[in-house]
C-alpha cells in the first residue's frame, strides 16, 4: 500500500493505481540545499521572480505579488546564512575530531559517554556507557547499579578473548546492565544462559527489569534490605526421559543423568544431580525430587543438563541435551521439557518429564498455582493481581473474591506454554490433591485419584518414547 493524496484527502492506496511523483514533475516537491547558495531578485517574463544559485544547480521561483516576493527573499537570505554557518561548523568539527559525518548519520541509536557516578539527570537519554567485562566489577563499588537506574550501559567481552569465548552474563544482569554483548558464534554455557533468559516476553529480545533493580537504594552487597521480591521454594521432580542419546551413538548405549542448576542473584546459585540410569537412554526413569530456595526468582534461571554418566574420553564429550528457562516463566504441574543441543537448537524427540511445584516462602505451606502472574507482577501487559487462598482441614478462606480460578494442569505441556485467559493467581495449602480445592473433598479419594492420574501420564509419556 502507498500513502498518497486524492482530492485533497490523504490515505493508503493500492500500488497499481498510484503514480510516484518525481522531482521533474510540475506538481512535485524538491529539496533545495541552501548552504553556500546565492539569493537574488530578477526580472523575467514572469514578475516577482527569485533566483537561487545553489551548488551545482540554479532554481527560479515566483511569487504572486511584490509583497510576498519580498517576504520570501528576506526569509531565504536568513535561512541561507544559518545553513552556511552550520555547514562550516560541522566541517570544522569533522576536521578536528576526524569524524566522517556521513557515517555518523547512520548511528542513530546511542551515543558514547563516560561513566560519572554522580550524574542523575544531566545526561541525555541517548547516551550509553560501554565497559569491558574486567572493568565491570571495579565499577560496582562506584555505584554502577544506581547509575543503571537512570542511564544505559553496555558490557562487552575483553579483548584478550582471542578464541571468541564468553563470560558469564549473570553478574552484569544482576547489576542492571541493559546490554550484555556476547560472541554468538560460540555455543558455550554463557550463550545458552543468554538464550534461555530471553525466552521471556515472547522471545522478542526485550525484558523489563524487576522493580528493586530500578530502586536508587538498591545495593547488591546488602540484598537482605531489598524490597519487592517474592521468595519461593521450587520443588522439581525429575520423573523420566525419552530418547536421550549422545551425538556419537556409535560409542554404545549411554547411562543418562540430569543436572539441575539455579543461576541467579546473590545466594540463588545451587546445583543438584540425579543418579545415573545404567544402559537405558530410550526411556530412563528417575522419580527424584529436589528443592531449591530462591530469594529472587525474578532474576533466576533454571538449567537442566543431561549427560552420560559412564562416558570416558573422546572428542564429543558426555553431552546429551540441555534446556534453560526463566524461573518467573515456569508453570506448575506435569511438564514435558524438550531438550536442545549445544547450539540451543531443538533435538528430535528428546525430552524430560518433570513435575514442578512452587511454594511462597512468605506464606507458610502456600502453593503458587500460577507463578508467572505473581513473579512478573508489574512487568506484564495483563492483570498482575494475585489471589491468595488458604485451606485448613476442609475450610477455605479467600482474601479476595474471584469469579474464576484455575489450578495445575495435568496435560503434557511446555514448561513456558501460554498462560490461561483468566489472569488470576492462586496460592493454596491443600496438599492432598493437585486439582481439588473443594472444602468437602475426601483426602483419601483425592490421593488415590492423583496416583491414578500420575500413572496415566507416565505411561503415556513412556509410550511416546517407545514409538
TrEMBL record:
Location of region: Disordered: 384-450
Domain of life per record: Eukaryota
GO biological process, one term: phosphatidylinositol-mediated signaling
EC number: 3.1.4.11
GO molecular function terms attached to this record: phosphatidylinositol-4,5-bisphosphate phospholipase C activity
Coiled-coil segments: none
Domain C2: 212-341
Amino acid composition bias (Polar residues), ranges on this chain: 393-417, 424-443
Stored InterPro entries: C2_dom (IPR000008), C2_domain_sf (IPR035892), PI-PLC_fam (IPR001192), PLC-like_Pdiesterase_TIM-brl (IPR017946), PLipase_C_Pinositol-sp_Y (IPR001711)
Domain called PI-PLC Y-box: residue spans: 103-213
Gene3D superfamilies: C2 domain, Phosphatidylinositol (PI) phosphodiesterase
Gene Ontology cellular component terms for the protein in this record: ruffle membrane
UniProt keyword terms in alphabetical order: Hydrolase, Lipid degradation, Lipid metabolism
Catalytic reactions of this protein: a 1,2-diacyl-sn-glycero-3-phospho-(1D-myo-inositol-4,5-bisphosphate) + H2O = 1D-myo-inositol 1,4,5-trisphosphate + a 1,2-diacyl-sn-glycerol + H(+)
PANTHER family given in the database record: 1-PHOSPHATIDYLINOSITOL 4,5-BISPHOSPHATE PHOSPHODIESTERASE GAMMA, PHOSPHOINOSITIDE-SPECIFIC PHOSPHOLIPASE C FAMILY PROTEIN
Name listed for the protein in its UniProt record: Phosphoinositide phospholipase C
Amino acid at each position: 500500500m502507498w500513502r498518497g493524496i486524492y482530492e485533497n484527502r490523504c490515505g493508503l492506496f493500492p500500488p497499481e493505481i498510484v503514480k510516484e511523483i518525481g522531482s521533474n514533475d510540475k506538481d512535485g516537491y524538491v529539496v533545495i540545499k541552501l548552504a553556500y547558495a546565492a539569493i537574488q531578485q530578477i526580472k523575467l517574463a514572469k514578475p516577482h521572480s527569485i533566483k537561487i544559485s545553489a551548488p551545482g544547480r540554479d532554481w527560479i521561483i515566483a511569487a504572486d505579488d511584490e509583497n510576498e516576493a519580498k517576504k520570501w527573499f528576506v526569509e531565504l537570505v536568513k535561512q541561507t546564512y544559518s545553513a552556511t554557518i552550520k555547514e562550516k561548523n560541522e566541517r570544522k568539527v569533522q576536521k578536528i575530531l576526524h569524524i566522517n559525518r556521513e557515517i555518523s548519520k547512520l548511528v542513530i541509536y546511542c551515543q558514547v559517554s563516560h561513566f560519572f557516578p554522580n550524574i542523575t539527570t544531566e545526561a541525555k537519554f541517548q547516551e550509553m556507557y560501554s565497559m569491558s567485562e574486567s572493568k565491570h566489577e571495579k565499577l560496582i563499588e562506584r555505584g554502577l547499579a544506581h547509575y543503571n537506574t537512570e542511564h544505559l550501559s553496555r558490557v562487552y567481552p575483553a579483548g584478550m578473548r582471542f578464541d571468541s569465548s564468553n563470560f558469564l552474563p549473570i553478574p552484569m544482569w544482576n547489576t542492571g546492565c541493559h546490554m550484555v554483548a556476547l560472541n554468538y558464534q560460540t555455543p558455550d554455557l554463557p550463550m545458552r544462559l543468554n538464550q534461555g533468559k530471553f525466552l521471556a516476553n515472547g522471545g522478542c529480545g526485550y525484558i523489563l527489569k524487576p522493580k528493586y533493580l530500578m530502586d536508587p537504594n538498591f545495593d547488591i552487597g546488602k540484598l537482605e534490605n531489598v524490597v519487592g521480591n517474592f521468595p519461593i521454594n521450587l520443588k522439581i521432580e525429575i520423573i523420566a526421559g525419552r530418547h536421550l542419546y549422545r551425538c556419537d551413538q556409535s560409542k554404545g548405549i549411554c547411562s543418562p543423568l540430569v543436572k539441575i542448576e539455579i543461576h541467579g542473584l546473590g545466594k540463588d546459585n545451587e546445583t543438584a544431580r540425579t543418579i545415573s540410569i545404567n544402559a537405558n537412554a530410550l526411556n530412563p526413569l528417575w522419580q527424584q525430587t529436589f528443592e531449591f530456595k530462591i530469594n529472587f526468582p525474578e532474576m533466576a534461571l533454571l538449567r537442566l543438563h543431561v549427560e552420560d554418566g559412564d562416558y570416558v574420553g573422546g572428542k564429543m564429550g558426555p553431552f546429551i541435551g540441555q534446556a534453560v528457562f526463566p524461573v518467573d516463566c515456569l508453570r506448575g504441574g506435569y511438564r514435558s521439557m524438550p531438550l536442545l543441543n549445544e547450539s540451543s537448537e531443538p533435538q528430535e524427540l528428546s525430552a524430560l518429564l518433570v513435575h514442578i511445584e512452587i511454594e511462597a516462602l512468605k506464606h507458610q505451606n502456600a502453593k503458587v498455582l500460577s507463578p508467572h502472574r505473581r513473579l512478573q507482577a508489574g512487568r506484564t501487559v495483563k492483570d498482575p493481581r494475585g489471589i491468595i487462598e488458604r485451606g485448613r482441614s476442609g475450610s477455605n478462606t479467600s482474601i479476595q473474591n474471584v469469579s474464576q480460578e484455575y489450578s495445575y494442569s495435568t496435560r503434557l505441556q511446555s514448561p513456558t506454554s501460554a498462560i490461561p485467559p483468566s489472569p488470576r493467581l492462586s496460592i493454596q495449602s491443600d496438599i492432598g490433591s493437585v486439582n481439588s480445592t473443594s472444602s468437602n473433598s475426601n483426602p483419601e479419594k483425592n490421593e488415590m485419584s492423583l496416583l491414578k492420574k500420575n500413572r496415566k501420564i507416565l505411561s503415556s509419556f513412556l509410550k511416546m518414547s517407545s514409538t
